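User: I want to check something. If I give you two sequences, will you return the structure for each one separately, not as a complex?

Assistant: Yes, each is folded on its own. Here is the first sequence with its structure:
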Amino acid sequence: MDARDVDSLERATVQAVSPEFVDDGVPGWLLPMDHGTVGRAQCAVPLRHDAPDVGAIDDILARYASRGFTPAWRLPDLPSFDAFFQALSERGFRRALPTQTQVGDIATVLHAIPEALVPGRELHLDEAPTAAWMTMFLGEGLDPVDGASRSRALARAQGTLFASLLEHGETLACGAASYSHGWLGVHGMRTAASQRGRGMAGAVLNAMAREARRRGIERVFLQVTAHNTPALALYRRAGFSLAWPYAYWRR
């Protein structure tokens, strides 16, 4: 990916999680700030991947402090950041939660995961989360406080649609699709535990991709934790590839 791709993808990521405030006054950085639990809405993130200026650290820390937010970072695991990592370590920050940024193209997704026409199945893309979408998103296996924070952030976002898969009127899978800066962003994918393995997440992804194609968007990205084996398998099958690994740095 070139520098423009990195810049546009990270701007799309921050827009999708809709932090309370974004400071863009430090060249080459976005500084999202939020009191919730969504890491991407709280962490300073670089807009390019060449070696960052270590001298920017104290300026960034001061900007978070001036607004009453706890500073944190979301940084690519790249050799060009080694000096930056060392400087953060000296200030008491530690690396956690290894995650992958993956990218793909809409044509490949639509070819790899065709629309699943199943009797009784419906797919909806709504401009706001429905009650059934929220119930699915906040359901089993998700901490309720974290889930509520994530749903508030998604609901605030501009340019996001909320995908629901229903069978015979029951919502069994969901996700959120952001459309901005030339990217489809895939977020918040959930499938009812009893329904996993039936291709429902793929059907939701297909619906998001078809809407991206309708809007003239041909690129897609997502972030997935490095240990989420089922999700990694789906995204690999859909033609996604690793753009860069990253991790969070917190005190």
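And separately, the second sequence with its own structure:
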Amino acid sequence: MLSKPLMTVHEVAEALKVTEATVRTWIRERKLRAMKVGKDWRVTVNDVEAFLDEHANK
């Protein structure tokens, strides 16, 4: 079993209230860490949280 749950691009977009295209752009620009599984991208919950931490107002 995976120690970190994986989210689809759709799930990340839904959780962050942005479009799937925005999430794919973040992945392409290496702002959001992701891995390719087959033809689809997967993102760990920890990577989404890290992304949010990096982009939060300090």
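Because they were folded independently, the notes below concern the second chain alone. Residues 19 and 56 are 19 Å apart (CA to CA). The domain at 6-54 is CATH 1.10.10 (Arc Repressor Mutant, subunit A).
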